[in-house]
């Protein structure tokens, strides 16, 4: 999204769950902190921090983040 976050679908508003998971996936796949198309990693990281950090993700998101 223009605000740097990611939604559940291409036209959806940005959510903490989707933005955090997309950011982590981009980093696991080898993108640097400023990597991705149009600095997607940096923009997503800023969106996450501006909206309370990854700890603001819903409980089911925390479950996904704990699985490795």
Automatic annotation (TrEMBL):
<dbReference type="GO" id="GO:0005811">
    <property type="term" value="C:lipid droplet"/>
</dbReference>
<dbReference type="Pfam" id="PF13249">
    <property type="entry name" value="SQHop_cyclase_N"/>
</dbReference>
<dbReference type="InterPro" id="IPR018333">
    <property type="entry name" value="Squalene_cyclase"/>
</dbReference>
<protein>
    <submittedName>
        <fullName>Lupeol synthase</fullName>
    </submittedName>
</protein>
<dbReference type="GO" id="GO:0016104">
    <property type="term" value="P:triterpenoid biosynthetic process"/>
</dbReference>
<dbReference type="GO" id="GO:0042300">
    <property type="term" value="F:beta-amyrin synthase activity"/>
</dbReference>
<dbReference type="InterPro" id="IPR008930">
    <property type="entry name" value="Terpenoid_cyclase/PrenylTrfase"/>
</dbReference>
<feature type="domain" description="Squalene cyclase N-terminal">
    <location>
        <begin position="1"/>
        <end position="66"/>
    </location>
</feature>
<dbReference type="InterPro" id="IPR032697">
    <property type="entry name" value="SQ_cyclase_N"/>
</dbReference>
<keyword id="KW-0413">Isomerase</keyword>
């Amino acid at each position: 999204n223009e605000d740097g976050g990611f939604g559940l679908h291409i036209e959806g508003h940005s959510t903490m769950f989707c933005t955090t998971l997309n950011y982590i996936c981009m980093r696991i796949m080898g993108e640097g902190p400023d990597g991705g198309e149009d600095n997607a990693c940096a923009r997503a990281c800023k969106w996450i921090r501006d909206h309370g950090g990854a700890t603001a993700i819903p409980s089911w998101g925390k479950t996904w983040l704990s699985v490795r």
